[in-house]
Every structure is written in structure tokens, then in C-alpha cells.
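User: Here's a structure from my thesis project, written as C-alpha cells. My advisor, Dr. K., wants to see whether a designed sequence matches the one we expressed. Can you design one independently, without my sequence as a hint?
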């Protein structure tokens, strides 16, 4: 199973939101990372057929998604940043409605809804109107609707927005469980959403792909370049001009512990193991 993006560009008048993107997605979890405005949402909307590329094609198993039509749509699940619903619909009614639109038969639909409501801790509010739910609960309803048809491809935009810490943990665990047989694409600007579950990473900025590959390989590419040191508070402005400081902590007494990326470290620095946040901040030019 393969989803292939072939030289795809999307132009909006004077704005080139996505520029000549080439990607090959296979089974596993793919983290699509980039700052706000990088083009992630536009790319995902093209992948689910909501937008047509200005140039290039998107293929699923060798066929253009435009030629596959509903056969392709039947195999994908999509959770946008904001999903629409009738404010008078209950959670259960909304999921049955979406299931009907997806052509799922009544028996299968009922079983999937029961299972998903239980999985995402929504059984107790299934008769409650969606409009009355908290932001986190609405997000969980959105995840349920995306998974109703048990899709081969799951595409999720900012998946954990509004979820608390425990909800985020459960959602990541769920994705890790299902990803062995699916293509799961998570678009986010929150590094922790994908740090421990993504098999592959894609870094996007200004409409272009700047890095892609296996997560561990990319992170290890900056091994030997990440350091920690304690410096004086008054030195911070100068150091920020010379080094990419990825984190810092006020130690008190005018001292600051910094974590930074460099080829030539400061004196008395300690070499540390790189993580995804280090890699991300080392590559995204717009992050200072």
C-alpha cells in the first residue's frame, strides 16, 4: 500500500502554499511537522481530495486519486482542524449520520460506534449534543468519525488540539496500535505529538519539504552537536546570536542552563543525546 505525492504544487493567486512536493507514504506513522503557515493543511486537503493541485498528481497504489473517486475516499479517514456538525445533533446521532454518508451498513456502523465511543471514553455522553461538549470531547468525537470506516489511510490535522495530557497519551497509544496495517499521517507544530510514536518524519516550511526520513536516522544526524552549559544571564543575548539555543532554564543567582546546537561548543559544556525537538529547531529556519 502506497500513497505517492508526485511534484505537487498549490498556488493561491500570489501565494505558493505548496511547492513541488514529492513524498512516498507507506504503512506506519508519519509525523508532518512545521510551523504555522508551512503548508501542512493545504497539503493534507489535497491528499483527501478537498483541493486539487495546481500542478502534479497524487497516486494511491499506482492510480491517481481523482480517477479512483469514491473508491479512494472509502479508504481514507480525515480529521481536519475544525470539523462541521449540526449543533442539535447528539454524539451518537452525528456518528450514525457520518457512517451513513460513508456507506457503512447499519450493523457494522452500530458496532464501530459502540467500540469507538468506549475507546475514546465518550460512552457516557453519547446522547449529549456535540455543541455542549468541551473542546477536548469534541476533538475525540472528531477522531471517532475519522475512524468509523476503519480506513487504510488516516490523515489527522493537529490531532491533539484541546486534549488534556491523559487524552493525548491514550490517542498516541491508539495510533501506535493501529498503524501496523495503516498509513497514519499526523500534521502538527507540536513536537511531542509525534516524538515517541512516529516511524517517519517530514519537516515542512514555506510550502517545501526540507527534511524527510526515518525518525531515528534524522535525529541521530545531529548526534555530537547538542550540548548543555550553564552561562550568565547577561550573556544570553550574545549567545543567541552565535548559537541555536533550543531550550533554557533559569538556575537562579544570575545563571541560566542552556541547551544548544553547535559544531564548536562553549567551554565547560556537556555533550547530550539529541531529541526530536533539537532536530526540529536545528532545521526550521523560521524558528529563532
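Assistant: Designed independently from the structure alone:
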Amino acid at each position: 500500500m502506497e500513497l505517492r505525492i508526485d511534484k505537487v504544487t498549490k498556488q493561491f493567486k500570489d501565494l505558493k502554499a505548496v511547492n513541488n512536493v514529492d513524498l512516498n507514504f507507506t504503512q506506519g506513522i508519519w509525523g508532518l511537522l512545521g510551523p504555522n503557515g508551512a503548508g501542512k493543511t493545504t497539503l493534507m486537503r489535497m491528499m483527501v481530495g478537498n483541493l486539487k493541485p495546481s500542478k502534479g498528481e497524487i497516486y494511491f497504489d499506482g492510480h491517481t486519486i481523482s480517477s479512483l473517486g469514491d473508491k479512494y475516499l472509502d479508504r481514507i479517514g480525515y480529521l481536519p482542524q475544525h470539523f462541521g456538525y449540526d449543533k442539535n445533533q447528539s454524539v451518537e446521532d452525528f456518528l450514525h449520520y457520518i457512517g451513513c454518508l460513508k456507506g457503512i451498513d447499519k450493523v457494522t456502523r452500530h458496532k464501530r460506534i459502540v467500540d469507538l465511543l468506549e475507546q475514546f471514553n465518550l460512552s457516557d455522553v453519547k446522547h449529549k449534543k456535540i455543541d455542549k461538549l468541551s473542546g477536548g470531547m469534541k476533538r475525540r468525537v472528531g477522531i471517532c468519525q475519522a475512524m468509523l470506516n476503519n480506513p487504510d489511510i488516516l490523515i489527522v490535522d493537529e490531532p491533539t488540539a484541546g486534549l488534556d495530557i491523559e487524552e493525548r497519551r491514550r490517542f498516541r497509544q491508539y495510533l501506535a496500535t493501529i498503524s501496523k496495517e495503516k498509513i497514519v499521517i499526523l500534521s502538527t507544530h507540536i513536537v511531542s505529538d509525534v516524538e515517541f510514536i512516529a516511524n517517519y518524519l517530514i519537516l515542512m516550511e514555506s510550502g517545501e519539504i526540507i527534511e524527510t526520513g526515518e525518525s531515528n536516522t534524522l535525529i541521530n544526524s545531529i548526534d555530537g552537536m547538542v550540548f548543555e552549559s550553564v552561562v550568565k544571564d547577561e550573556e544570553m543575548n550574545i549567545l543567541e546570536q552565535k548559537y541555536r539555543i533550543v531550550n533554557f532554564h533559569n538556575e537562579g543567582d544570575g545563571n541560566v542552563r542552556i541547551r544548544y546546537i553547535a559544531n564548536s561548543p562553549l567551554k565547560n559544556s556537556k555533550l547530550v543525546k539529541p531529541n526530536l525537538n533539537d532536530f526540529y529547531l536545528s532545521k526550521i529556519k523560521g524558528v529563532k
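When you compare it with your expressed construct, this may help: The chain has two domains: 2-220, 224-272.
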